[in-house]
Design brief:
Blueprint lengths: L4 H47 L5 E7 L2 E6 L5 E7 L2 E6 H50 L1
Antiparallel strand pairs: 1-2, 3-4
Helix pairs in contact: 1-2
Length: 142
């Protein structure tokens, strides 16, 4: 690398920025994975609900990996949160379509975030290696 002190300090600063970005993107990936799991679980429950016959018992997730057994009635409407604390009533098929659209949207966001995370990790790794190489070269000169 063989750089001036100011350039080395700037490289260290950029590396710290990459490190913070990697940490932020890692947290975002975790949130997106949890969201994707929740949407998938809801979609599976809705499909079981839609396919069940009147009087059938199905397991419905209530959160925190907990389920309750419910008996299906002829009412096949579902209350779906559409964001900003707004919920709407939909029939089961429409609710499934909505969940599938959410699933696709979250999956795309997760894919893009993972790509950005990988790019940032690679850049951080390359920069860190160059900085360490410069430190080693300076120690050998001293």
């Amino acid at each position: 690398m063989n750089v001036e002190d100011a350039e080395l300090r700037q490289a260290i600063s950029v590396a710290e920025s990459y490190k913070q970005r990697v940490e932020a993107l890692s947290r975002q990936v975790q949130v997106l994975r949890v969201s994707l799991d929740e949407v998938t679980m809801a979609s599976n429950a809705l499909k079981a609900f839609k396919d069940a016959k009147d009087g059938d018992e199905i397991m419905v997730p209530v959160g925190a990996t907990s389920y309750i057994t419910v008996k299906v009635t002829s009412n096949r409407n579902v209350i779906v949160d559409i964001g900003s604390d707004i919920s709407v009533e939909k029939d089961a098929a429409s609710a499934i379509e909505y969940m599938d659209a959410n699933n696709a949207e979250i999956s795309e966001a997760l894919s893009k975030t993972l790509e950005a995370l990988n790019e940032s990790q690679t850049a951080l790794s390359n920069l860190t290696a160059a900085i360490q190489q410069e430190y080693s070269a300076r120690q050998q000169q001293a």
